[in-house]
């Protein structure tokens, strides 16, 4: 058996959260792109509408209804891109979007129909060499995306765990 016929490794794992609670299983991605959406009759990808949770708050229910077509995550040669297919903004935080060694969290607002490079492979390699991680838990290969609600210094929600619906994208940086 030649090395090309062996099973391809995953490039990311997606976790869906409602406030501080992870909902459903981790979704492992092997294909170069994945749709993450609420509910489509012929959707292919990670369907958040199928994830059950008892006693959902009204805020979470309202936000889930805004996910719609969701996002498309795509692994490209220069990094990972997210395309906002919802009718509402998404909010993104990533180590490669932050200013190096900054004490301020940067959260980018991405309007419907727009895309953003949520993770830059080259910048990630540079950051891992120069960044000081002494301020607590930090994953240099993790991207956080919230639906419809922002967080951080410019918002009433200071932490992503205050957002009703959000994703954690854990990148397998060994499989670029």
Read across the widest sheet, the strand sequence of neighbours is: 2-1-11-10-7-8
Q: Regarding CATH, which class? A: Mainly Beta
CATH architecture: Sandwich
Form type: globular
Main beta-sheet strand count, sense and barrel state: 6 strands, antiparallel
GO molecular function, one term: transcription regulator inhibitor activity
Protein name: SMAD family member 6a
Pfam families: MH2
Keywords: Transcription, Transcription regulation
Walk me through what this model shows.
- A hairpin with a 2-residue loop joins strand 5 and strand 6 (79-84).
- The chain has two helices and eleven strands; from the N terminus they run E-E-E-E-H-E-E-E-E-E-H-E-E.
- A six-stranded antiparallel sheet has the order 2-1-11-10-7-8. It has a five-stranded mixed sheet with strand order 4-3-5-6-9.
- It has helices at 58-65, 121-130; strands at 12-18, 21-29, 33-37, 45-47, 71-76, 79-84, 90-93, 108-110, 115-120, 142-147, 166-171.
- It is globular and about 45 Å long.
- Mean pLDDT is 86; it is low at 1-6.
- It has one domain: Tumour Suppressor Smad4 (Sandwich), CATH 2.60.200.
- The chain is mainly beta.
- It holds the Pfam family MH2.
- It comes from Callorhinchus milii (Ghost shark).
- InterPro entries: Dwarfin, SMAD-like_dom_sf, SMAD_dom_Dwarfin-type, SMAD_FHA_dom_sf.
- This is SMAD family member 6a.
- One of its GO terms (molecular function) is I-SMAD binding.
């Amino acid at each position: 058996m030649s090395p090309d016929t062996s099973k391809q490794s995953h490039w990311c794992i997606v976790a869906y959260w409602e406030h501080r609670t992870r909902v459903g299983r981790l979704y492992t991605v092997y294909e170069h792109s994945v749709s993450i959406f609420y509910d489509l009759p012929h959707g292919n990808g990670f369907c958040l509408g199928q994830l059950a949770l008892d006693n959902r708050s009204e805020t979470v229910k309202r936000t889930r209804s805004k996910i719609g077509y969701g996002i498309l995550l795509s692994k490209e040669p220069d990094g990972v891109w997210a395309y906002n297919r919802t009718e509402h903004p998404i909010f993104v935080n990533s180590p490669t979007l932050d200013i190096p060694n900054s004490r301020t969290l940067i959260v980018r607002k991405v309007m419907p129909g727009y895309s953003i490079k949520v993770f830059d492979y080259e910048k990630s390699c540079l950051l891992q060499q120069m960044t000081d991680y002494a301020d607590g838990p930090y994953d240099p290969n993790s991207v956080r995306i919230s639906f419809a609600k922002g967080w951080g210094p410019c918002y009433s929600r200071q932490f992503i765990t205050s957002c009703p619906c959000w994703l954690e994208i854990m990148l397998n940086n060994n499989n670029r």
